[in-house]
Specification:
The protein has 201 residues and is an all-alpha fold. It has one domain (2-185). The protein has 9 helices and no strands. It starts with a helix and ends in a 16-residue tail after the last helix. The relative contact order is 0.16.
Length: 201
């Protein structure tokens, strides 16, 4: 989760938006499960992220940087493991909630590996990067990404009380959708800009 947050912190508002929605969803699950402590602590993280997000939306006046991305990734990992241990939700639901970051980063790296590209070299192959470089306004790309984030969060809330099979089907469907989106974004239908020369996340 630390690396995923760092990988995805490449556009104004994206990592902050994921934090607001993701931790906000965890707090709702804590509330529904009558876990006051879990609810309160995740609500604090969501509220703090919202305060940051106000100044991080395009064009950003402040930036998260590695310190912010690493911290949020670590807190996301701790909170999800904590919630699972306290039986507020299942591991599958946790994956569904943070699916936009998990699938975007993981599928992008997998596709680069299949294409025999370096996994350590700086690149612009993430879905949000491809969309931004295709000519769309950054504000529109952010809106698309936040809609995906909210959709996954709502899906997590809906399937939390459903069977394991339903949860697995939901996660698999989201994963399949991201594979299709990633394949489209890496096709000739979108621009293929040269990767930057310096190392970056």
């Amino acid at each position: 989760m630390i690396n995923l947050y760092n990988f995805m912190d490449g556009m104004d508002g994206l990592a902050g938006g994921m934090a607001v929605v993701g931790f906000g969803t965890l707090s709702i699950l804590g509330y529904l499960g009558n876990d006051t402590l879990f609810f309160g602590l995740n609500l604090i993280v969501a509220a703090a992220s919202a305060g940051f997000l106000i100044f991080n939306l395009p064009r950003a006046r402040i930036f998260m940087g590695d310190a912010g991305a690493y911290s949020l990734g670590l807190i996301a990992a701790i909170s999800t493991l904590w919630g699972i241990e306290r039986k507020s939700f299942s591991p599958i639901v946790a994956f569904v909630i943070f699916a936009p970051f998990i699938f975007d980063a993981t599928i992008t790296l997998a596709m680069r590996a299949l294409q025999r590209k370096s996994l350590w070299q700086a690149h612009r192959d993430h879905i949000y990067q491809r969309l931004a470089l295709s000519g769309l306004l950054k504000s529109r790309v952010l809106a698309i990404e936040i809609c995906l984030v909210i959709s996954c969060a709502v899906s997590g809330l809906i399937v939390n009380s459903r069977s394991t099979a339903t949860q697995m089907f939901t996660l698999a469907s989201i994963g399949a959708a991201y594979v299709i989106i990633a394949a489209y974004c890496n096709s000739d239908k979108l621009a293929h800009p040269p990767a930057p020369s310096k190392t970056s996340s």
